[in-house]
Design goal:
Layout (H helix, E strand, L loop, with lengths): L4 H29 L2 H20 L10
Helix pairs in contact: 1-2
Length: 65
């Protein structure tokens, strides 16, 4: 049975919100630990998630639209 378009979009949006939340949490943890390598990795993941969310018209919730 095919997935309805609205359901697929909703699932994608939820997955993106989860990815953004996890990336922000990882960045905060890395900054708290003062781990330069983990900060760089977390920043890259967050930037990628933000780019992907914006390219699909989703509000990344970062105030930058």
């Amino acid at each position: 049975m095919p997935i309805a378009l609205g359901a697929a979009v909703s699932e994608f949006a939820e997955a993106m919100r989860r990815r953004l939340r996890q990336a922000r949490e990882a960045l905060a943890a890395a900054e708290s630990d003062g781990d330069a390598y983990e900060i760089a990795v977390a920043e890259d993941e967050l930037e990628d998630a933000l780019r992907l969310a914006r390219s699909h018209g989703l509000d990344p919730g970062d105030g930058a639209g």
